[in-house]
Structures are given as structure tokens and as C-alpha cells.
Amino acid sequence: MQSSPHARPHPVWHEAADAHVLAELLAGWVSERLREGLAQRGQATLVVSGGSTPVPFFHALREADLDWPGVTVTLADERAVPATHADSNARLVRSHLLQGRAAQARWLPCFATDTATDTDSQPDHLEAACEALDARLAALSWPVDVVVLGMGGDGHTASLFPRSVELLQALKAPPSRRCLVAEVPDAPNVPVRRLSWTPQALLATRHLAIHTTGVAKRELLQRACASDDVREMPIRLALWQDHVPCHLFHAD
User: Fold this and answer.
1) Which value, to the nearest 10 degrees, does the dihedral of the CA atoms of residues 173, 189, 12, 25 take?
2) What is the pLDDT of residues 88-114, one digit of tens each?
3) DSSP states of 66-87 as a string?
4) pLDDT per residue over 55-78, tens digit each?
5) CB 152: neighbour CB atoms within 10 A?
6) Is the bond preceding 5 in cis, omega lying within 30 degrees of 0?
7) Pairing of β 44-48 and β 12-15
8) DSSP 3-state helix, strand, coil percentages of the chain (rounded to 5)?
9) Separation CA 207–CA 94 (nearest Å)
10) Average pLDDT for 33-56
């Protein structure tokens, strides 16, 4: 993938009156896409993101009437923290999505043991964890069915941060590379090492959504649609591309 995308963004906007109505709308859209995958291929894969925004969406989706044992759930990125840590995306998903009916889904964590120890956060061990995740992701059925991305206030998505060395390297990575180690000491909120899907992997999906809330995020999305510099705002990798239609789910 080049840092200069190929197509002007023509996202499909889905808007709702508030965050909870939006969560129900997104959950309905995702469940239909998963149902299609289950009907056509007997299995489906859902890639979700961390943060506080998706929690109402997780609560709505987990009660969907799906053949959950046929659904694989995984994360677009993860922090190198123990799975019991408040900043663990795995903890978030297990607590809020893999409950109720969705408890029967197959869970594919970024770390093989569903936890990252202090040792795992060291460079050599994290590189090994990245290679192991790459192998587990390669075993999935590609393209995956649904990817739901979030967006930070700086325009980052997954653990692809503006003007980071890892982003620049990832944009040139071969399609076979699906995972990278992100060194993000200047990341907002949680400056720890992370594992992240590459741009190529995130776009290797049948259905793509971006989930945001708030007036500031609307303005950021509009700015992202106005210019194609992915290095400045990595969320543009989902907007300025012609691989898969991009659906924006937003509530002010």
C-alpha cells in the first residue's frame, strides 16, 4: 500500500440521535453482515476496537440472535499490559462483548495466553508475540467479514499513530504482514508498547465501519475526508481507498 491512497472518500454515513441509538444501529448492521458470512461460509470473523466508545455497541451486539459458535472475535490492536489491567482491550471485550449470547463466540486474543506480562512488553518478547499473532491471523479465513474501527482525537486508528515510524513502515509492508509492534511513547492516554494490525490487514475485509461520537469527532472526520495525507491522520487509510466501502456510524 502506498501512503497516497487511490480514491476520493465516499463514505456511507449512518447517523443517530445519540450514542445509544447509534450503538443499536451499528449492532444491527454488524449482525446482518455476520449472519451473511455464517450463511454463505459457515463462519464469520469480527474485528473490533478498544476504548470507551464501543461499549454500548458491544452491549447491543452481544444479544444478537446469531450462531455465535461460528463467529471469531478479535481485536485490531492491543496494549502490552496484563489482561486484568484496566487498559487491556482484551479485558474490555471479555467484559462487555463476550457475554450473554456472544459468550459462545470464539475469542482470538492478540497475545496467545490472553495476557501480556512485564516480560512480554520487552522488545524481543513483543516481536515474538507479534510473529505469533501473525501466524494465528494467517490461519483465519480471508478476507475477514467485518472490521469496526475507532478514531482517536489525533486521527489515529488501531495503534497506527500520526507520523510514527511504524506507520510509515506499515504502509510499505507486504500484504502477508498482518501485525506490527507499535512503539508509541507519545500516544495519548496510554503510552505503552502495542500490537496492531497493519493497514493492509485492516482493509482485507468484506465490510468496514468507523464508529465515532461527538461534535469534535465529526469535525475530525470531515477534515480527514478533505485531504489524503495518511501520515498526518491514519484514519484516512480507511477513507481514501477503493478496496472496500467505508461506513461511518456517528452521533453528535
Assistant:
1) 130
2) 999 999 999 999 999 999 999 999 875
3) S-GGGEEEEESEEESS-TTSTT
4) 999 999 999 999 999 999 999 999
5) 21
6) no
7) unpaired
8) 35, 20, 45
9) 23
10) 98
The helix/strand/coil state of 65 is: coil
Give the 3-state secondary structure of residue 20: helix
- What does the alpha-carbon distance between residue 63 and residue 60 come to, in Å, rounded to a whole number? 6
Structural domains in the chain, sorted by start: 12-251 (3.40.50.1360)
CB 161 within 8 A of CB 184: yes
pLDDT of residue 3: 39
- The label of the residue with cell 502477508 reads 176
| Mean pLDDT of the region 242-252 | 97
pLDDT band at 121 (very low <50, low <70, confident <90, very high): very low
Return the amino acid letter for 230: V
237: nearest Cα among 195, 201, 188, 191: 201
Query: If you search the block for the grid coordinates 461527538, which residue do you land on?
Result: 214
Q: What is the pTM of this model?
A: 0.93
